[in-house]
Amino acid sequence: MITYVVKYYDKLLGALGEHLVLVGLTLVFSLILAAALTVLCVYVKRVEAALVGVCSMIYSIPSIALFAMLIPLSGLGKTTAVIVLTLYNQYLLLRNFLTGLHEVDRGITEAAAGMGMTTGQTLLRVQLPLAREAILSGIRLAAVSTVGIATIAASINAGGLGSILFDGLRTMNMNKILWGSILSAGLALLLDRALIAAGRRASR
Amino acid sequence: MHAIEFCDVSKKFHGSAQNAVDHVSFAAEEGEFITILGSSGCGKTTLLKLVNRLYEPDAGSILLFGEDIADADVTNLRRRIGYVIQQIGLFPHMTVAANIAVVPELLHWEKERISARTDELLTLVGLPPEEYRSRYPGQLSGGQQQRIGLARALAADPKLMLLDEPFGAVDPITRAKLQEELLQIHGGLGKTFLFVTHDIEEAFRLGNRVIIMNAGKILQFDTPEQIIKHPADEFVVSMMRSVQEKERFWRELL
Questions:
Q1: Contact across the interface for B85 and A111, Cβ inside 8 Å
Q2: Does domain A2-203 have CATH number 1.25.40.20?
Q3: What residues of B are in contact with residue A113 (Cβ under 8 Å)?
Q4: How confident is residue A35, by pLDDT bands cut at 50, 70 and 90?
Q5: Is B233 among the domain residues?
Q6: What is the CB-side half-sphere exposure of residue A65 using CA atoms within 13 A?
Q7: Domain assignment of residue B228, yes or no
Q8: Residue A195's Cα: distance from chain center in Å?
Q9: Is residue B204 in some structural domain?
């Protein structure tokens, strides 16, 4: 196992790098989209149930199927992978964001409105800071799940740690299977820890 | 000109057969302390929320110093009205000073003016500024929190204060003290207070005039003395009787 790393470390590092880029891009786009959808829900309350419903439907599609469905639209490769992963995250993010906002005590939001805060001011100054925990846990969930599902993106030529895993499976190479698993699991754990630490720092 | 005037105001909620507020008309003068008394579900909180437009009436109009509030910009209107609620609604992530500063900041006051005003209000509600300014609501007792709620509502010097059962959740001893202090604060400021309560003693103790509500209607609107001498109908009489019974209970116990 160790000799494998010594021999192929550049290949492993390359796959890890690709994976990180995939996850990083996905998280950036996911957060932008989820934030926009959340704000939409806050201003137009009627769309909330429908939007969460659609996101949960997408989330329930097996990832391989969703990758395959998008190939005619955006082809093989990273673009399709990032689109699919971003769509998947919407359910995790939106649901956590909205739950966090709704859990802010009604007395507090009503006091904010009654004092003359606009909807936007209430959201920014009162609801968001108080929903921080739920928002952060949504981001962590999305990050960890993206690391996992991104391995499957190798099946549509998006590269990353998944390509090592799939190679290993095809050739029954235990070294590749193990290192692919260890690196993706390690990445997920590390990302989770890093987000927790970042959250703590921000709350100080 | 009246400080506040309701002209045949009605409000009905979706899915409800009756009006929550049913053809209500009354007027209060500047500097009055009006208490609105009724049991839960009688429409008293709805009536209050119509004033700062958390609810919009289905019919009728409400005038604030002669101006129809329906024509006012809703956020501006709310910033001109102090609002205190039972759940207090202090923002737990902000210090006491930041809580009090909310409306002045929305109105873009200068920093020095806000800080001076904050200290002035903390002193007014009996909490020494240097000790309480930078505390968080979670570090305060219920009574202290409600004092901050009151200070926050008074921050931008509104002419009208709406108080929705502000002392409903504090213990009886603190409550009596807060009532006493509220009366003093009201006396010194010349503001108009609309104070909702279901506690008949609180209503009669605080209000220079009392509105008695039931099923969305005003049954009687008069001074405490007049209500006691000339109760308008059976409902008011039964309310008085309940107080007398309570009194008898205590007399027998002592």
A1: yes
A2: no
A3: 54, 78
A4: very high
A5: yes
A6: 5
A7: yes
A8: 12
A9: yes
